[in-house]
Amino acid sequence: MEPSITRVCCFLLSLFAGLVSGLEITSTEPTSIEKASGQSVKLDCQFTLAPEDSGPLDIEWSLLSSDNQKEDKVVILYSGDRAYEDYYAPMKGRVHFNSADPKNGDASINLTGLKSSDSGTYQCKVKKAPGIRSRKMLLIVMVKPSKPSCYTEGPTQEGKDVVLKCISREGTNPLQYSWEKTSDSKLLPASAVLDPVGGTINVRNASASASGTYRCTASNRVGTEECVLYLNVTPPPNTPGIIAAAIITVLLILIIIAIILFCCCRARHRKKYEKEICNEIREDVPPPKSRVSTARSFTVGSQRSSLGSMSPSNLHEYALKPQYDKIPSSEEYERPPSHNPLPPPSGAKMAGPNLSRMGAIPVMIPAQNRDGSIV
Protein backbone atom coordinates (compact mmCIF):
# COMPACT_ATOMS: atom_id res chain seq x y z
CA MET A 1 0.00 0.00 0.00
CA GLU A 2 2.77 2.37 0.90
CA PRO A 3 4.75 1.93 -2.36
CA SER A 4 1.67 2.90 -4.40
CA ILE A 5 1.21 6.07 -2.39
CA THR A 6 4.83 6.93 -2.86
CA ARG A 7 4.59 6.54 -6.63
CA VAL A 8 1.58 8.83 -6.81
CA CYS A 9 3.34 11.54 -4.82
CA CYS A 10 6.42 11.33 -7.02
CA PHE A 11 4.28 11.65 -10.14
CA LEU A 12 2.52 14.74 -8.82
CA LEU A 13 5.81 16.34 -7.79
CA SER A 14 7.30 15.75 -11.24
CA LEU A 15 4.19 17.17 -12.90
CA PHE A 16 4.26 20.28 -10.70
CA ALA A 17 7.96 20.82 -11.41
CA GLY A 18 7.26 20.61 -15.15
CA LEU A 19 4.55 23.18 -14.87
CA VAL A 20 6.69 25.55 -12.88
CA SER A 21 9.59 25.28 -15.25
CA GLY A 22 7.39 25.93 -18.36
CA LEU A 23 6.51 29.30 -20.15
CA GLU A 24 5.95 32.09 -17.63
CA ILE A 25 5.16 35.84 -17.77
CA THR A 26 7.32 37.54 -15.23
CA SER A 27 6.22 41.21 -15.43
CA THR A 28 5.54 42.90 -12.11
CA GLU A 29 4.41 46.33 -13.37
CA PRO A 30 0.97 47.67 -12.27
CA THR A 31 -1.98 46.30 -14.19
CA SER A 32 -3.73 49.72 -14.22
CA ILE A 33 -2.11 52.69 -15.89
CA GLU A 34 -3.36 56.30 -16.24
CA LYS A 35 -1.91 58.57 -18.88
CA ALA A 36 -2.76 61.91 -20.42
CA SER A 37 -3.74 62.26 -24.04
CA GLY A 38 -0.79 62.92 -26.30
CA GLN A 39 1.63 61.07 -24.05
CA SER A 40 3.27 57.66 -24.60
CA VAL A 41 2.96 54.49 -22.55
CA LYS A 42 4.72 51.15 -22.29
CA LEU A 43 2.60 48.05 -21.71
CA ASP A 44 4.97 45.60 -20.06
CA CYS A 45 4.94 41.85 -20.86
CA GLN A 46 8.15 39.98 -19.96
CA PHE A 47 8.27 36.17 -20.26
CA THR A 48 10.60 33.19 -19.81
CA LEU A 49 10.72 29.90 -21.72
CA ALA A 50 11.44 26.37 -20.60
CA PRO A 51 13.43 23.76 -22.51
CA GLU A 52 10.30 21.80 -23.17
CA ASP A 53 8.67 24.84 -24.90
CA SER A 54 9.86 23.86 -28.33
CA GLY A 55 7.04 25.11 -30.56
CA PRO A 56 7.02 28.31 -32.67
CA LEU A 57 6.74 31.56 -30.70
CA ASP A 58 3.57 33.62 -31.19
CA ILE A 59 2.81 36.92 -29.43
CA GLU A 60 -0.55 38.61 -29.71
CA TRP A 61 -1.74 41.88 -28.23
CA SER A 62 -5.47 42.59 -28.35
CA LEU A 63 -7.87 45.24 -27.10
CA LEU A 64 -10.66 43.43 -25.27
CA SER A 65 -14.21 44.49 -26.03
CA SER A 66 -16.39 45.64 -23.16
CA ASP A 67 -19.32 43.95 -24.90
CA ASN A 68 -19.13 40.16 -24.75
CA GLN A 69 -21.05 39.92 -28.01
CA LYS A 70 -18.35 41.83 -29.93
CA GLU A 71 -15.00 40.43 -30.98
CA ASP A 72 -11.72 41.53 -29.48
CA LYS A 73 -9.53 43.72 -31.69
CA VAL A 74 -6.01 42.46 -32.42
CA VAL A 75 -3.59 45.37 -32.12
CA ILE A 76 -0.17 43.86 -32.99
CA LEU A 77 1.24 40.39 -33.80
CA TYR A 78 4.51 38.53 -33.77
CA SER A 79 4.46 35.24 -35.60
CA GLY A 80 6.96 33.25 -37.66
CA ASP A 81 9.82 35.49 -36.55
CA ARG A 82 8.05 38.54 -38.01
CA ALA A 83 6.25 41.50 -36.40
CA TYR A 84 2.98 42.82 -37.79
CA GLU A 85 2.75 46.35 -36.33
CA ASP A 86 0.19 47.89 -38.73
CA TYR A 87 -2.43 45.27 -38.01
CA TYR A 88 -4.92 47.66 -36.30
CA ALA A 89 -5.80 50.70 -38.45
CA PRO A 90 -6.70 53.17 -35.63
CA MET A 91 -3.23 52.64 -34.13
CA LYS A 92 -1.29 52.42 -37.38
CA GLY A 93 2.15 53.96 -36.90
CA ARG A 94 1.60 54.45 -33.16
CA VAL A 95 2.21 50.95 -31.77
CA HIS A 96 5.55 49.09 -31.80
CA PHE A 97 7.25 46.22 -29.99
CA ASN A 98 9.63 47.41 -27.31
CA SER A 99 12.30 44.93 -28.42
CA ALA A 100 13.59 44.44 -31.93
CA ASP A 101 13.64 40.67 -31.26
CA PRO A 102 10.75 39.62 -28.95
CA LYS A 103 12.16 36.06 -28.82
CA ASN A 104 14.56 37.30 -26.16
CA GLY A 105 11.70 37.36 -23.64
CA ASP A 106 10.33 40.91 -24.09
CA ALA A 107 6.83 41.04 -25.57
CA SER A 108 6.19 44.60 -24.29
CA ILE A 109 4.74 47.23 -26.64
CA ASN A 110 4.90 51.04 -26.78
CA LEU A 111 1.91 53.26 -27.64
CA THR A 112 2.58 56.85 -28.71
CA GLY A 113 0.31 59.85 -29.23
CA LEU A 114 -2.35 58.49 -26.91
CA LYS A 115 -5.98 59.32 -27.58
CA SER A 116 -9.01 59.01 -25.38
CA SER A 117 -10.24 56.23 -27.70
CA ASP A 118 -7.15 54.17 -26.75
CA SER A 119 -8.58 53.59 -23.30
CA GLY A 120 -9.48 49.98 -22.54
CA THR A 121 -8.23 46.59 -21.34
CA TYR A 122 -5.25 45.16 -23.22
CA GLN A 123 -4.20 41.50 -23.17
CA CYS A 124 -0.74 40.12 -23.88
CA LYS A 125 -0.80 36.47 -24.95
CA VAL A 126 2.43 34.49 -25.43
CA LYS A 127 2.26 31.02 -27.04
CA LYS A 128 5.09 28.55 -27.46
CA ALA A 129 3.78 25.01 -27.53
CA PRO A 130 2.96 23.54 -25.24
CA GLY A 131 3.10 26.65 -23.02
CA ILE A 132 0.50 29.46 -23.19
CA ARG A 133 0.38 32.48 -20.87
CA SER A 134 -1.45 35.82 -20.89
CA ARG A 135 -1.58 39.06 -18.92
CA LYS A 136 -4.21 41.82 -18.81
CA MET A 137 -3.69 45.54 -18.20
CA LEU A 138 -6.12 48.45 -17.93
CA LEU A 139 -5.11 51.62 -19.74
CA ILE A 140 -6.98 54.87 -18.96
CA VAL A 141 -6.18 57.74 -21.30
CA MET A 142 -7.27 60.94 -19.61
CA VAL A 143 -7.73 64.29 -21.31
CA LYS A 144 -6.30 67.18 -19.37
CA PRO A 145 -8.53 70.23 -18.95
CA SER A 146 -8.75 72.67 -21.83
CA LYS A 147 -8.03 76.32 -21.14
CA PRO A 148 -11.04 77.50 -19.13
CA SER A 149 -13.02 80.66 -19.80
CA CYS A 150 -13.58 83.11 -16.94
CA TYR A 151 -16.46 85.59 -16.83
CA THR A 152 -18.87 87.34 -14.49
CA GLU A 153 -22.56 86.63 -14.26
CA GLY A 154 -25.02 89.33 -13.30
CA PRO A 155 -24.42 92.99 -12.38
CA THR A 156 -21.07 93.94 -10.85
CA GLN A 157 -22.37 96.71 -8.58
CA GLU A 158 -21.88 97.45 -4.93
CA GLY A 159 -24.43 95.77 -2.71
CA LYS A 160 -25.20 93.08 -5.32
CA ASP A 161 -24.19 89.41 -5.36
CA VAL A 162 -21.41 89.04 -7.93
CA VAL A 163 -20.85 85.58 -9.44
CA LEU A 164 -17.54 84.62 -11.07
CA LYS A 165 -17.65 81.54 -13.30
CA CYS A 166 -14.92 79.30 -14.68
CA ILE A 167 -15.66 76.54 -17.21
CA SER A 168 -13.34 74.13 -19.03
CA ARG A 169 -15.02 72.66 -22.13
CA GLU A 170 -12.79 69.57 -22.35
CA GLY A 171 -11.16 67.29 -19.80
CA THR A 172 -11.67 63.94 -18.17
CA ASN A 173 -13.77 64.06 -15.04
CA PRO A 174 -13.54 64.66 -12.23
CA LEU A 175 -12.51 68.25 -12.80
CA GLN A 176 -11.70 70.49 -9.86
CA TYR A 177 -11.75 74.30 -9.87
CA SER A 178 -9.98 76.66 -7.52
CA TRP A 179 -10.03 80.48 -7.27
CA GLU A 180 -7.48 82.91 -5.90
CA LYS A 181 -7.05 86.66 -5.88
CA THR A 182 -3.73 87.80 -7.30
CA SER A 183 -3.95 91.53 -6.60
CA ASP A 184 -4.10 93.75 -3.49
CA SER A 185 -4.28 91.61 -0.37
CA LYS A 186 -4.41 88.35 -2.40
CA LEU A 187 -7.22 87.16 -0.16
CA LEU A 188 -10.67 86.25 -1.34
CA PRO A 189 -13.48 88.45 0.02
CA ALA A 190 -14.79 87.27 3.36
CA SER A 191 -18.29 86.86 1.89
CA ALA A 192 -17.09 84.71 -1.05
CA VAL A 193 -18.56 81.19 -1.39
CA LEU A 194 -16.55 78.79 -3.59
CA ASP A 195 -17.94 75.80 -5.52
CA PRO A 196 -14.94 73.62 -6.54
CA VAL A 197 -17.04 71.32 -8.75
CA GLY A 198 -19.16 73.92 -10.54
CA GLY A 199 -16.26 76.35 -10.86
CA THR A 200 -18.13 79.35 -9.41
CA ILE A 201 -17.38 81.83 -6.67
CA ASN A 202 -20.23 83.92 -5.28
CA VAL A 203 -19.26 87.23 -3.69
CA ARG A 204 -22.25 88.22 -1.57
CA ASN A 205 -23.02 91.92 -1.00
CA ALA A 206 -19.97 92.93 -3.01
CA SER A 207 -18.08 96.06 -2.11
CA ALA A 208 -15.41 98.11 -3.89
CA SER A 209 -12.72 96.17 -2.01
CA ALA A 210 -13.71 93.04 -3.97
CA SER A 211 -12.34 94.61 -7.16
CA GLY A 212 -9.14 93.13 -8.48
CA THR A 213 -7.58 90.32 -10.51
CA TYR A 214 -8.72 86.74 -9.96
CA ARG A 215 -7.24 83.49 -11.29
CA CYS A 216 -9.13 80.22 -11.78
CA THR A 217 -7.35 76.87 -12.11
CA ALA A 218 -9.03 73.79 -13.60
CA SER A 219 -7.33 70.48 -12.87
CA ASN A 220 -7.70 66.73 -12.99
CA ARG A 221 -5.27 63.87 -12.41
CA VAL A 222 -3.29 64.49 -15.60
CA GLY A 223 -3.03 68.25 -15.98
CA THR A 224 -4.06 71.81 -15.11
CA GLU A 225 -5.08 74.95 -17.00
CA GLU A 226 -5.95 78.44 -15.78
CA CYS A 227 -7.56 81.72 -16.78
CA VAL A 228 -7.48 85.27 -15.39
CA LEU A 229 -10.40 87.65 -14.76
CA TYR A 230 -10.42 91.30 -13.69
CA LEU A 231 -13.39 92.28 -11.52
CA ASN A 232 -14.46 95.93 -11.25
CA VAL A 233 -17.19 96.55 -8.69
CA THR A 234 -18.88 99.88 -9.53
CA PRO A 235 -21.20 102.10 -7.46
CA PRO A 236 -24.93 101.69 -8.08
CA PRO A 237 -26.35 103.90 -10.83
CA ASN A 238 -28.13 107.23 -10.13
CA THR A 239 -31.68 106.04 -10.74
CA PRO A 240 -33.47 109.45 -10.26
CA GLY A 241 -31.00 111.08 -12.65
CA ILE A 242 -31.62 108.39 -15.24
CA ILE A 243 -35.38 108.85 -14.95
CA ALA A 244 -35.09 112.64 -15.27
CA ALA A 245 -32.84 112.29 -18.32
CA ALA A 246 -35.34 109.91 -19.90
CA ILE A 247 -38.23 112.33 -19.30
CA ILE A 248 -36.27 115.26 -20.77
CA THR A 249 -35.36 113.18 -23.80
CA VAL A 250 -39.01 112.26 -24.39
CA LEU A 251 -40.09 115.90 -24.09
CA LEU A 252 -37.44 117.03 -26.55
CA ILE A 253 -38.60 114.41 -29.02
CA LEU A 254 -42.23 115.55 -28.64
CA ILE A 255 -41.23 119.21 -29.14
CA ILE A 256 -39.29 118.36 -32.29
CA ILE A 257 -42.27 116.42 -33.64
CA ALA A 258 -44.60 119.35 -32.86
CA ILE A 259 -42.30 121.81 -34.65
CA ILE A 260 -42.15 119.56 -37.70
CA LEU A 261 -45.97 119.25 -37.80
CA PHE A 262 -46.39 123.03 -37.39
CA CYS A 263 -44.00 123.74 -40.26
CA CYS A 264 -45.79 121.24 -42.50
CA CYS A 265 -49.21 122.73 -41.76
CA ARG A 266 -47.96 126.26 -42.32
CA ALA A 267 -46.37 125.34 -45.64
CA ARG A 268 -49.58 123.64 -46.73
CA HIS A 269 -51.68 126.69 -45.77
CA ARG A 270 -49.30 129.05 -47.62
CA LYS A 271 -49.50 126.92 -50.74
CA LYS A 272 -53.30 126.95 -50.61
CA TYR A 273 -53.34 130.76 -50.16
CA GLU A 274 -51.02 131.30 -53.14
CA LYS A 275 -53.26 129.11 -55.27
CA GLU A 276 -56.33 131.20 -54.37
CA ILE A 277 -54.49 134.45 -55.21
CA CYS A 278 -53.47 133.00 -58.56
CA ASN A 279 -57.10 132.14 -59.35
CA GLU A 280 -58.21 135.70 -58.51
CA ILE A 281 -55.59 137.15 -60.85
CA ARG A 282 -56.73 134.93 -63.70
CA GLU A 283 -60.27 136.36 -63.44
CA ASP A 284 -58.92 139.77 -64.61
CA VAL A 285 -57.26 138.41 -67.75
CA PRO A 286 -58.85 139.72 -71.01
CA PRO A 287 -61.08 137.35 -73.02
CA PRO A 288 -59.45 135.09 -75.60
CA LYS A 289 -58.91 136.12 -79.22
CA SER A 290 -61.77 133.95 -80.46
CA ARG A 291 -64.20 136.39 -78.90
CA VAL A 292 -62.54 139.25 -80.77
CA SER A 293 -62.92 137.55 -84.11
CA THR A 294 -66.51 136.74 -83.26
CA ALA A 295 -67.21 140.31 -82.32
CA ARG A 296 -65.55 141.61 -85.43
CA SER A 297 -67.49 139.25 -87.71
CA PHE A 298 -70.63 140.23 -85.97
CA THR A 299 -69.81 143.88 -86.43
CA VAL A 300 -69.04 143.49 -90.11
CA GLY A 301 -72.31 141.62 -90.67
CA SER A 302 -74.17 144.31 -88.88
CA GLN A 303 -72.49 146.93 -90.98
CA ARG A 304 -73.45 145.22 -94.20
CA SER A 305 -77.06 144.80 -93.11
CA SER A 306 -77.35 148.47 -92.25
CA LEU A 307 -75.93 149.89 -95.44
CA GLY A 308 -79.30 149.96 -97.12
CA SER A 309 -80.80 152.08 -94.37
CA MET A 310 -78.19 154.78 -94.70
CA SER A 311 -79.01 158.02 -96.48
CA PRO A 312 -77.10 161.22 -97.20
CA SER A 313 -79.16 163.01 -94.61
CA ASN A 314 -78.02 160.94 -91.68
CA LEU A 315 -74.49 160.26 -92.98
CA HIS A 316 -73.34 163.60 -91.56
CA GLU A 317 -74.50 162.66 -88.08
CA TYR A 318 -72.84 159.29 -88.34
CA ALA A 319 -69.48 160.79 -89.33
CA LEU A 320 -69.62 163.11 -86.35
CA LYS A 321 -69.68 160.27 -83.72
CA PRO A 322 -66.77 160.06 -81.22
CA GLN A 323 -63.69 157.94 -81.83
CA TYR A 324 -64.51 155.39 -79.10
CA ASP A 325 -67.45 154.18 -81.18
CA LYS A 326 -65.04 152.71 -83.71
CA ILE A 327 -64.28 148.99 -83.81
CA PRO A 328 -60.91 148.40 -82.14
CA SER A 329 -58.29 146.42 -83.97
CA SER A 330 -56.90 143.15 -82.53
CA GLU A 331 -53.79 144.98 -81.24
CA GLU A 332 -55.91 147.59 -79.53
CA TYR A 333 -58.17 144.92 -78.09
CA GLU A 334 -55.34 142.87 -76.64
CA ARG A 335 -53.59 145.92 -75.18
CA PRO A 336 -54.58 146.52 -71.51
CA PRO A 337 -57.00 149.37 -70.94
CA SER A 338 -54.37 151.49 -69.24
CA HIS A 339 -52.15 151.36 -72.32
CA ASN A 340 -54.80 152.22 -74.96
CA PRO A 341 -53.77 155.43 -76.71
CA LEU A 342 -55.92 158.43 -76.32
CA PRO A 343 -58.08 159.28 -79.33
CA PRO A 344 -56.38 161.80 -81.54
CA PRO A 345 -57.80 165.27 -81.56
CA SER A 346 -60.64 165.67 -83.95
CA GLY A 347 -59.76 167.48 -87.16
CA ALA A 348 -61.95 169.56 -89.38
CA LYS A 349 -65.35 168.10 -89.83
CA MET A 350 -66.35 167.14 -93.37
CA ALA A 351 -69.91 167.41 -94.46
CA GLY A 352 -71.89 164.41 -95.62
CA PRO A 353 -72.42 165.61 -99.22
CA ASN A 354 -68.71 166.20 -99.63
CA LEU A 355 -68.03 162.64 -98.45
CA SER A 356 -70.49 161.29 -101.00
CA ARG A 357 -68.86 163.25 -103.82
CA MET A 358 -65.46 161.85 -102.76
CA GLY A 359 -66.72 158.30 -103.21
CA ALA A 360 -67.25 157.42 -99.51
CA ILE A 361 -69.57 154.61 -98.68
CA PRO A 362 -72.00 155.26 -95.87
CA VAL A 363 -71.50 152.75 -93.01
CA MET A 364 -73.34 152.51 -89.73
CA ILE A 365 -71.10 151.47 -86.85
CA PRO A 366 -72.97 150.45 -83.75
CA ALA A 367 -71.73 151.78 -80.45
CA GLN A 368 -69.54 149.44 -78.29
CA ASN A 369 -68.35 149.34 -74.72
CA ARG A 370 -64.66 149.21 -73.80
CA ASP A 371 -64.77 145.43 -73.47
CA GLY A 372 -66.01 145.07 -77.08
CA SER A 373 -69.68 144.31 -76.47
CA ILE A 374 -72.26 146.02 -78.66
CA VAL A 375 -74.58 148.52 -77.03
From TrEMBL:
Compositional bias (Polar residues): 291-314
Biased composition (Basic and acidic residues): 328-337
Subcellular compartments: Basolateral cell membrane; Cell junction, Adherens junction; Cell junction, Tight junction
Signal peptide residue numbers: 1-22
Single biological process term from Gene Ontology: kidney development
Superkingdom in the source lineage: Eukaryota
Protein name: CXADR Ig-like cell adhesion molecule
Origin organism lineage: Eukaryota, Metazoa, Chordata, Craniata, Vertebrata
